[in-house]
Design goal:
Na+/H+ antiporter like fold, alpha/beta, 62% helix, 726 residues, TATA-Binding Protein
């Protein structure tokens, strides 16, 4: 039905309006439907890729190929006779509107890449990183350009050969950084060298791209396999101009970074508006660089690199996340759409693509890993560095798109670039993961320094940890720190002010680990101490005004329950009509035995411990003969409740001092979201009615117990609906 909806829409449009208006309306309607399809398709592709442990971008690329003009996108159907993504003539096979959004996404990607550059780390390890990065660049560029001469028939200095060499240069900082972060190796000797070398790779790649784009305009592109006479003076001028423009703007940006940061904060104040204006600067610089004959992405990267040296970097990254999540899948999908499978499906092109990919991988392993052997790294360390430089990722795709839109490369060569990107991104991460898991050192001689100081605190429980950390981050914000929180397997909080940079990792077990420079350890310890004092003071004040036993009694005698349906979370099999237990401990153990018999427990010991721990904090024996032992625990994977009855009553240390006769045990998974409070509140409300309690205790079967609860719930819902109508 959704497929034919556009047909009805366009049919109604064709009956009225001028031709120009109808055409514009048609284009805009087609664009919004195309965007919707792209976003849904890339989300599905990303999820499927992650399920088989591949980077999500691979799934997005493949979905782009699938829905693109050369496959499903070119198939006509009512409303779209030429397909949703029809093949267009020219160098770019997708519509200008869609490609424009993809170009904007490329600007966002490179702006964020600049923001994410750890400039102090980059400068600190620029020596080793430069050697490793430069080695990878030279080997990759030379081998890529040289290999292309055999495929195209042109010589080394032909624009196509030079551009294919440029595509081999880039390294995906994001993919490699993700692997290093997972293994907590970001600050390891190999990690810092890989990251600084990857940044150098991308910077050099962008400079080479600017030079090659300039050369493409002046080098003769004859079709006889040669490149004609070469004006070396003009070539040198193009190179000097490209490097000079990039260098001048970069130096100016770094020199005035703090002043620019202060200007943005003082002028626009609101963090969202600061982010918008920072992005506006990136767009402005992108336009200036494009007008100067360089690429837009270089201008965006320079602005990002400038702001990375300010305390606004994390704030801007955080605020841009929604924009990133919207546009970047469009970029990867459009990159996939530009692949003409027919053009690369013939044996010659496919064989060359695989060979080009193999050489590109080897070039990084030798070009980056080889020099590492001369920098105090052993074979293991050098292999880690070489593999860390292999994934090409988004920068290579951006360059390929620029080459295609500029008419330098064709669809065959673009397909080869995409093949190299996909294979290098799939193959390298698992291999690097395995090498990082090896506990042996990657250095010939252990060196001190370089790594940040790691300080850990155990808060015993995740709940207490969250309370303390929430107070701590509030204290740091009052000190003028910018806070950025993200999920990466575990919660990571980044704090930055001027040159102080602190990372906080919060584990599921309530352990907090701080990573910082040695000089900043006392700073966060003092803030943490003040936070603990603040929480302790608040807890003391809370004890004076909050009386938990009185509140628990009010719950037991309060409302008669809400509209939440409790029945799906239990079963007649989960009811014990006559408990054998004689005390609190035995009640809990008997009900847990029943839960284990019905395979509700993943780990019975953990569940028992958590239920008893909850009882230690405060009894779950309420008033009116009700007891609700419960726990959020890692020992179960789904929420259920069990019912135990003891008409004679058991001392459960209830709040009113009376024996408990009805026991409801609620077990909820600790992780994830679930209606734990709603379930407890509804059960308590139903049992507040004396007639319900009496009927349950007199029930002759387990089924009857549930029917009584269900009838009581239906009566409550009917009364609630009646009140709402009145």
């Amino acid at each position: 039905m959704l497929i034919f909806l556009p047909a009805l829409l366009f049919a109604s449009q064709e009956n009225g309006g001028g031709h120009a208006e109808m055409s514009l309306t048609h284009q805009m309607t087609q664009l919004v439907i195309q965007l919707a399809v792209i976003l849904f398709a890339t989300w599905i592709g990303g999820k499927l890729a992650q399920k088989i442990r591949l980077p999500g971008v691979i799934g997005q690329l493949l979905m782009g190929i699938l829905i693109g003009p050369f496959l499903l996108g070119g198939l006509g159907f009512p409303g779209f006779p030429q397909g949703l993504f029809p093949v267009l003539e020219g160098t770019i096979p997708v519509s200008p509107l869609v490609y424009s959004l993809s170009s904007l996404a490329a600007i966002i990607l490179l702006f964020i890449a600049g923001l994410e550059t750890d400039l102090p780390l980059f400068l600190k390890y620029a020596g080793k990183g430069s050697v490793v990065g430069l080695g990878g660049v030279l080997f990759s560029f030379a081998s890529g350009a040289w290999l292309s001469t055999f495929f195209t028939g042109y010589d080394f200095f032909h624009p196509i050969s030079l551009f294919m060499g440029t595509l081999s240069v880039a390294t995906s900082v994001g993919i490699t950084a993700s692997i290093l972060s997972d293994q907590r190796k970001m600050d390891s000797p190999e990690g810092v060298v890989i990251l600084s070398a990857a940044v150098i790779d991308d910077v050099l790649g962008i400079i080479i791209l600017a030079i090659v784009l300039g050369l493409a305009a002046i080098l003769p592109s004859t079709g006889d396999g040669g490149s004609g006479s070469i004006d070396w003076g003009e070539i040198v001028w193009v190179g000097v101009k490209a490097v000079g423009v990039w260098l001048v703007f970069t130096i100016l940006g770094l020199v005035f970074a703090r002043k620019l940061g202060r200007f943005l904060k003082q002028t626009f104040k609101d963090q969202s508006l600061v982010t918008v204006m920072a992005f506006a600067l990136a767009l402005l610089m992108a336009g200036i660089f494009e007008s100067a004959g360089l690429s837009m992405i270089i201008g965006a990267y320079v602005v990002g690199l400038t702001l990375s040296n300010t305390d606004l970097a994390f704030v801007i990254q955080s605020r841009l996340k929604t924009l990133h999540d919207f546009f970047v899948p469009v970029f990867f999908a459009v990159s996939g759409m530009m692949v003409n499978l027919e053009a690369i499906a013939n044996g010659r092109v496919l064989a060359f693509g695989l060979l080009f990919t193999l050489v590109a991988v080897i070039a990084k392993l030798i070009g980056s890993g080889g020099p590492a052997l001369l920098l105090n790294f052993n074979l293991l360390g050098a292999s880690r560095i070489g593999l860390g430089m292999v994934p090409r990722g988004e920068v290579a795709l951006i360059m390929a798109g620029i080459g295609m839109s500029s008419g330098i490369i064709n669809q065959e060569q673009f397909g080869i670039a995409l093949l190299m990107t996909i294979i290098s991104t799939i193959a390298a991460p698992p291999a690097l993961n395995q090498l990082l898991k090896i506990r042996s050192s990657g250095q010939k001689v252990e060196e001190g320094g370089g790594e940040k100081t790691e300080t850990s605190f155990s808060f015993q429980s995740p709940e207490f940890a969250q309370l303390i950390i929430s107070t701590f981050t509030s204290e740091m914000e009052k000190e003028g720190f910018f806070i950025n929180s993200m999920e990466h397997g575990e919660e990571v909080i980044q704090m930055r002010k001027d040159d102080v940079f602190i990372s906080l990792y919060i584990g599921e077990d309530g352990e907090a680990t701080f990573l910082s420079d040695e000089k900043d350890v006392n700073l966060f310890k003092t803030a943490l101490y003040e936070s603990l004092l603040s929480v302790n003071k608040a807890a003391g004040a809370l004890k004076k005004v909050f009386k938990p036993d009185e509140m628990a009694k009010s719950i037991s005698s309060g409302s008669t329950g809400g509209a939440f349906n409790i029945i799906p979370y239990t079963s007649p099999d989960f009811v014990i009509r006559n408990l054998r237990a004689h005390n609190k401990q035995e009640v809990i153990e008997e009900m847990l035995y029943l839960a284990d018999a019905h395979e509700l427990l993943d780990d019975g010991e953990i569940v028992k411990h958590d239920v008893l721990e909850r009882e230690k904090s405060m009894t779950t024996g309420m008033a009116n003969g009700i007891a609700i032992p419960h726990a959020k625990t890692e020992g179960v994977s789904s929420m259920h409740f069990l019912i135990g009855l003891k008409p004679d009553g058991i001392d459960f240390q209830s709040l009113d001092g009376e024996p408990s006769t009805i026991f409801i045990m609620i077990l909820t998974p600790k992780q994830g979201h679930g209606p734990h409070i709603q379930l407890m509140s509804s059960i308590t409300g139903l049992l507040n009615r004396s007639e319900v309690r009496e009927a349950i205790l007199k029930a002759e079967t387990s089924y009857e117990v549930l029917r009584i609860l269900q009838r009581a719930q239906e009566e409550n819902q009917a009364q609630s609906q009646k009140k709402s109508r009145n």
